[in-house]
Design brief:
mainly alpha
Length: about 90
Amino acid sequence: MEWMAWTSLTATFFCCIGVLLVCMTTWELRSPSIARRGFLPIATSRGDRLFIGLLGSAFLHLLVIGATDWSIWVASLMSLVWLLVLMRWG
């Protein structure tokens, strides 16, 4: 594992993603979701919206890193807001 740049922040990030996936799986097993339409042009379930949100967050981070000199925390905050909006109204 020496070839990877594992910092405490990186480990925390991946642990949070893991906890999020476990929580979503538990929620889905207890209460199966029904595909619905929100502002996205397709019917999506909770898992679909989570995947789209995480994918969008990754692209948002790449955009902030590549095109601006903003702190990565700005991208993280914007990603959190994006994920919450998408999960609620997407």
